[in-house]
Amino acid sequence: MGKLMFLMLLAGFAGLVAWAIAEPSRPPLGSSDVARWEAMFAFVVGACIGGAVGGFAGWLQGSRTHFWRGILLGILLGGLGGTIGL
What is the pTM of this model? Predict the structure, then answer.
């Protein structure tokens, strides 16, 4: 399996895990907290996907420093991208 296919599967799995964690906390549809929850949900899903992909990319570079840098930057940029994408 190629790296690109593995990254796509990893991102899909990370998105599924983030959804499973955040979805039970959804407020009722008529509530005024839905917009705030959606923004938090987009950030969490983006951060999980970004952290997983960034961590794997750092791991492929071969050092623990690259791994942790990839995770942290992936979480930050993925969360930002998820929020902007919403």
Answer: 0.86
